[in-house]
Every structure is written in structure tokens, then in C-alpha cells.
Amino acid sequence: MTSTTPPGDGFYRPAEVAQKLRCSEWWVKEQARNRRIPYRWIGGSYLFTDEDIAEILRLFKREPLAPVPSIPTPRRSPEQPSDMESRRPGFRLTARVPRRARTATADNSARQRKEGH
């Protein structure tokens, strides 16, 4: 269905459409230039109607692929200790020896065994 709206208040320039759609003017012109969105070419410039803007919104609408399941979060009772509180006091993490140091140590012990025999 084509619109017979006369020129004037019913037409928007790319800058106005960009402001309404919260995108750049360049994007609006590029989409129109590549004929991805509806527009009017009047007087050598892109013009858009309210119907065009509604169609642009419809064209670029994205629906979720599947409903997002809600993940229940476990609730703890006030008297249940947190993870940090349940750890043993005095338990400390220790860093591993870096790989280069482990390799160097293994190489040195292999050399010493060869030299000793």
C-alpha cells in the first residue's frame, strides 16, 4: 500500500530519522543507498515517511531464538555459613613452581645422573 501524503510535515530527512532511531545519519543513508530500507527519492535526496520508519523498525526487529530459562539462585539460611567462613583457618594456597624452573631442575638432575654413572 503506497502513501499519498503530501510533502511537508509528513517527510523526514536522514538526520531526523537517525535521531528517531538512535543511529547515525550515515547508517540511514547507507541502508537506503543499498535499498535495505524503504525511502522516497524526491528532489535528489532521501525522504522518509512515518510508514517508512515503522517499516524500518519492523525490518530490524529481532526476536529471541528461544525463551531464556530463569536460573534459580540457591538461598542460604542466615545460620548457614558462607563458603569463606566454612574454610579451615590456616589453609593457604601455594603457587606452583614455574614450568621453566621445573624443566631446568629436571634437566639438571638428568645431567647429574649421567655424569655420576
Can you characterise this structure?
The chain is mainly alpha-helical. Among the domains are: 46 residues, no CATH class; 25 residues. The protein has five helices and two strands. It has a two-stranded antiparallel sheet with strand order 1-2. It is elongated and about 95 Å long. It starts with 13 loop residues before the first helix and ends with a helix. The N terminus is likely disordered. InterPro entries: HTH_17 (IPR041657).
Question: Could you write a compact summary of the structure shown?
Answer:
By secondary structure, this protein is mainly alpha-helical. 42% of the residues lie in helices and 5% in strands.
For the structure shown, list the relevant keywords.
about 120 residues; 5 helices; disordered N terminus; mainly alpha; single chain
* Mean pLDDT over the residues: 82
Q: Give the topology string: H per helix, E per strand.
A: HHEEHHH
> Strand content of the residues, in percent?
5-15%
Main sheet attributes: strand count, strand direction, barrel closure: 2 strands, antiparallel
Shape: elongated
Write down the Rg. Answer: 34 Å
Question: Got a strand count?
Answer: 2
Q: Which regions contain 5 or more consecutive residues with pLDDT less than 50?
A: 1-7
Tally of separate helices: 5
CA-CA gap between termini: 96 Å
Output the strand order for the largest sheet.
1-2
The percent range for helix content is 40-55%
Q: Label the structural class.
A: mainly alpha
